[in-house]
Design goal:
Layout (H helix, E strand, L loop, with lengths): L11 E7 L8 E7 L17 H14 L2 E7 L1 H7 L1 H14 L7 E5 L10 E5 L7 H24 L5 H4 L5 H10 L10 E2 L2 E2 L1
Helix pairs in contact: 1-4, 2-3
Length: about 200
């Protein structure tokens, strides 16, 4: 069972990202504020769940969250400021979308750029420990998957509907054979070749 919150006194938003290790597409992030008494038997790290379950949970989260926001940083921004900073930027943008202002931010991972003057705590594997981070991981993952599925219709060569932009063998081979699309991150490398 995941924990409902990290600290008891301040309004807390959980943050997570999706798509950090991809060759193509934006990095997405979500921020979620859940009720103090929130519980769910299935909700956990999105990577541990089936696609069907993730989408079912997205609906549940959006219905029961006090506030949520989903945002992205583009491949161009990733190339300009690097993937870590682009992930932080996407998280900040997701936090900007919350209609309730949090007083504390709980972040999955070990690094974060402070958001405004709000206190934060980084939690390694936080998406398997805290509901709010797990909820953010679900939203970031499913909204990013939706985008990659749509982009794949115009760029079927790369099979994004299957790999979602991650560097599978077929995706890497397609890049080496056909070159990059406008949605690829140019600063990532494949077999010592800049794409």
């Amino acid at each position: 069972m995941l924990q409902p919150y990290f600290q008891k006194h301040l309004i807390e938003a959980g943050c997570d990202e999706a798509g950090r290790g991809c060759l193509a597409g934006p990095v997405f992030a979500a921020a979620v504020i859940l009720p103090r008494d929130f519980k769910h038997d299935v909700l956990t790290d999105s990577k541990q769940l089936t696609e069907k379950t993730r989408y079912q949970l997205r609906d549940y989260i959006e219905q029961h969250a006090l506030a949520f926001g989903v945002a992205q940083a583009s491949p161009t921004e990733i190339d300009q400021i690097n993937i870590a900073n682009a992930s932080f930027l996407a998280m900040h943008r997701a936090l900007d979308l919350l209609h309730i202002r949090p007083k504390f931010v709980l972040v999955d991972g070990n690094r974060f750029k402070p958001y405004q003057a709000i206190a934060h705590q980084c939690i390694v594997k936080g998406d398997s420990l805290y509901y709010s981070i797990a909820a953010a991981s679900i939203l970031a993952k499913t909204y990013r998957d939706d985008l990659m599925n749509n982009l794949s219709k115009d760029y079927p060569t790369y099979e994004w509907q299957k790999n979602k932009g991650y560097p599978t063998a077929k995706h890497r081979e397609a890049v080496l054979r056909h070159g990059i699309s406008p949605h690829h991150r140019r600063t990532f490398q494949i077999k010592d070749t800049h794409i």
